[in-house]
Design a protein that fits this description.
By secondary structure, this protein is an alpha/beta fold. The protein is built from 10 helices and 12 strands. Helix content is 40%, strand content 24%. Strand 3, helix 5 and strand 4 form a beta-alpha-beta unit. Helix 1 packs across helix 2, helix 1 packs across helix 4 and helix 5 packs across helix 10. This is LysR family transcriptional regulator.
Amino acid sequence: MNISDLKYVAEIARTGSMTQAAANLFMNQPNLSKAVISLEKELGITIFRRSSKGVSLTKEGNDFLLSTKEILEKFEMVEARYKAEEMIHYFGISVPRASYISTAFSRFSSEIASAKKLQINFYETNSMKTIQNISSRKHSLGIIRYAVEYERYYNKLLADLDLYGDMLLEFDYLALMSENGPLAQQKELKPENFVDLIEIVHGDYTIPLLSTSEIQKPMHNVSNGKSIELYDRGSQFDVLSDVWNTYMWVSPIPKEMLKRYHLVQKHVFVKDNLYRDVIIRPKAYQMTDTDRKFLSHLYRVRDMISV
């Protein structure tokens, strides 16, 4: 057993697919399967349950993954520490506005900050612009966001442009507010509960969460003419925290950020409120070590967000 074996198991467990894991690891699927079978024989356990729908961890496999997680993470930290100074990092990505994505980006940036050469472009934009940036090769990675009702349209668009999509997160839009706000302790919320509150919206409409034709936000039934437009991304949490009767619609936010700004995020019972964030890239694109570093941070933050 070696460190590569641990990486193989972690990636297969994450994707639930031997084929996709092999693609992400830049190796062919038969060799990956052989490596896993060899590891299972060496350990005397069955790590994965195979079926026509994919692969899943057995109880023994889950125990193995949990017991080796810390080892793998420490190895990656040591590896990053001694490689960082030698590596030249070029990285560009187009993404929607999302606190969990920006948190992952901050952690990623901190990891590679000691590199001798560094060129990073982190571009917040709408889904159609992201697809345009990836198809034109301005960026090699992107994250698009859409309501599930539009999934067929986006799948066809990605296929037509020879782009690959991997689902990152499925979520409901949440109402973010001060922990001292009038609705913070209320368990069941509906749009009518917000009629006396002030909505915070981003004033720079050139960088919306979605393009105008895509947008179907859950707050369409809440409009009361009360809003605060902000052009500075960093000030939104300060306003939410200080102005007790404000709120804004967000994708799930990391708990550390909620705690820092004394905020809570609440489910609201509205129709057509299910969205997906999907990582996209050209099908022929071979991810770099820098890409994988960012995605590693992104998956870890994604796995920590919950309501």
